Amino acid sequence: MADFHQNGNITTLHDLRHRSEDNLAHEVSVLAGSRKVTLILPCLYSELEGPALPGILAQLSKVTYLHRIIIGLDAANEAQYRKARAFFSVLPQNHVVIWNDGPRMTAIQAQLQALGLAPKEKGKGKNVWSCIGYLLACADSSVMAIHDCDILTYKRSMLDRLVYPVVNPAFPYQMAKGFYPRIGDGKLNGRVTRLLVSPLLIALKRVIGDRSYIDYLRSFRYPLSGEFAIRTPILPDLRIPSDWGLEIGVLSEAWRNLAPKSVCQVEIADNYDHKHQNLSEEDAKTGLSRMSIDICKALFRKLAADGTVFTPNTFRTLKATYYRSALDLLDGYYNDAMMNGLSLDRHKEERAIELFAENIIKAGNVFLDNPHETPFIPTWNRVYAADRELLTRMHEAVDEDLQDFPASAMQAMP
């Protein structure tokens, strides 16, 4: 996007098209010599059969500075775990595949359950949380990076740019959030960010008044991006949401735990595309419909924790204000797409806005009807306080799985 605008709330680090990718990668490699970097890849087994992950591994294989890669594998049986081991064996770096559904990790889950500290539902949040636990048990990394496994336009420079702000000791940043334009197949994508989060934050500011937290979230160009890097000392106190509010939840935790000058966003790509979720208008438990509800709940919970009082009337007003704000923004998105030769179906966009407006009410009702809901997974500091040996047992469980279930002879990589 090549501008140099700063919003005044958090620092934005741009790609000004002046420095070569190789030059930046070399500096990151030098810096990572004293600040070891671990990359976390949360994935479903089904993503091993998709078009994106082979390309991601081909790019990651060129990265020389990674100390470790932790792959959190969900929805896999024993045979699939073995195939996953073979699939990821192309990585030349030290790497480990965590079999989250295996008997040993299931036993760890049961121990957490007995302590009342287990994640309440499966999903990306639990996967990331488990990977962070393994990273903390290793106790040998200074920086954690994370990105999704469905990025169709992945380049190794995305990782270089993502980790640079937190691996550079001259910078004050504890967390870096990636951003990029969402474009693919000639379309303007990123519906949930464009059509829900951006207009909802505008509506919240109008309905409940000025809040520094809202201004903070509005400062992020792509708050729902799955790419971020964090210095590891803050990980033990990080509260991970168990639902689809993970990205908003992590930003909220950075707001709670860090000074604004410790958080930045960094431009990591000119173009970004990944698999697209269905809108799921008929089923609020799947697709973008569920995602929108979880995101709304994450925002309402955070604002309530900061003292905002919500009532049914608040949510009715918020819905109306959101709807008008979203339609106003849609005009701008449409004109932007047309000027850049991209397509944008206004009918489908307005249908999404109508669904999201209804889901604001649904999320509000869930929030009001469940005042004791605690959707966050306990911090690893709390787990350690309850059982000081659990992290060690988790590390041993993963290592024993690697010993007892070697990679399948059938190479899963094409």
TrEMBL record:
InterPro entries in the cross-refs: Nucleotide-diphossugar_trans
Descriptive protein name: Glucosyl-3-phosphoglycerate synthase
Organism expressing this protein natively: Chrysophaeum taylorii
